[in-house]
Design goal:
By secondary structure, the chain is α+β, with helices and mostly antiparallel strands. It is built from seven helices and ten strands. Strands 5, 6, 7, 8, 9 and 10 form a six-stranded antiparallel sheet that branches. The chain has a four-stranded antiparallel sheet with strand order 1-4-2-3, covered by helices on one side. The longest helix is centred in the C-terminal third of the chain and has 17 residues, at 193-209.
Length: 244
């Protein structure tokens, strides 16, 4: 993404363009690449990635990016890529990327393939999940929860109706039962609250500005070694109306 263009074009206009480019007739899910571009337009920090046309290009891109990398098959038909075998992490060489890419493509029969997404692997020991849900009564609601292995077991989630402010975002973090994990914890830095607030505020703004978007899942938000939350995977779900 051209970061200079973000100063010239309003986030909502850029998001509309992304949706129009990505959303075909009847399509409900944006691909991960399109989803990441959309949330990035609203200030969400996303992991460095590049969409590649084929296996060889993916291997070249991974070498230029630096190992280890994650490799994902990018498709609007595969919202749950991991379960479909379309995600490989910890790839440490061009040969490993090439082999994984060829395997994914060989299994992608009947799936619309946008390309192969090579992503710099973000290192971190703590994870959050964030999102936006459109409630029939309250409208767009922003969610924040603990991620990783504890997600299903703890169901530790805080919710606010959009729009939200930085103070709301801080309260959402503090309301989590696991909030202490995201302070200075076992030698790890506290999560960057300003950066987290920017993410949650941005998700709320998307919901307010784009009624065609039904849901956004950002899972996980990995807290890196500096305390910054970075989106590693994103899914944007459109409502029944589809296009913007």
């Amino acid at each position: 993404m051209d970061m200079n263009s973000s100063k010239e074009t309003k986030p909502d206009a850029r998001a509309v363009e992304i949706i129009r480019e990505a959303a075909g007739p009847g399509l409900r899910n944006l691909s991960e690449n399109s989803s990441a571009r959309l949330i990035e337009a609203y200030g969400v920090a996303v992991a460095e990635s590049r969409l590649c046309a084929g296996a060889e290009e993916a291997a070249e891109c991974a070498g230029a990016m630096g190992y280890p990398v994650a490799l994902k098959l990018c498709s609007p038909d595969a919202p749950h890529k991991k379960e479909m075998g379309f995600v490989k992490i910890g790839l440490g060489s061009a040969d490993a990327v090439l082999e994984a890419a060829k395997e994914m493509l060989s299994r992608a029969e009947g799936v619309t393939v946008e390309g192969l997404l090579v992503q710099r692997q973000v290192r971190g020991e703590r994870e959050l999940i964030a999102g936006m849900r459109r409630d029939r009564t309250f409208g767009p609601c922003v969610t924040l929860g603990v991620g990783g292995v504890f997600t299903e077991a703890m169901k530790d989630i805080s919710v606010r109706v959009a729009p939200i402010c930085a103070e709301d975002a801080g309260e959402m973090l503090d309301e989590l039962k696991t909030a202490k994990m995201f302070g200075s914890y076992r030698g790890l830095p506290a999560v960057d609250r300003e950066a987290l607030a920017k993410i949650l505020i941005g998700l709320g703004e998307i919901g307010l500005n784009h009624p065609e978007i039904e849901e956004i899942d950002v899972n996980p938000l990995i807290i890196d070694g500096t305390g910054k939350p970075i989106a590693v995977d994103a899914l944007v779900v459109l409502g029944a109306g589809g296009k913007a």
